[in-house]
Amino acid sequence: xxxxxxxxxxxxxxxxxxxxxxxxxxxxxxxxxxxxxxxxxxxxxxxxxxxxxxxxxxxxxxxxxxxxxxxxxxxxxxxxxxxxxxxxxxx
Length: 91
Prior knowledge:
This protein has helices at residues 10-24, 29-35, 41-53, 78-83, and strands at 26-28, 57-63, 66-71.
């Protein structure tokens, strides 16, 4: 993540988060931090919160220690994918 010295527009952050979610379908916050490193943790958390409030993503617990985001268009598939081994960058 950057040191915050370069201020990104909220639309840039949302575009980057949405682009990653389009590719991986389901991801944890830790994955998002690793794969979208140009933004601070606060920027990413605020963006995920906004996407959740807008109904574009659903937040779920994968297990007791991991929160994941699921695009709302695929929530019917999430239980299958959540039970699969690693998730993240998928074709």
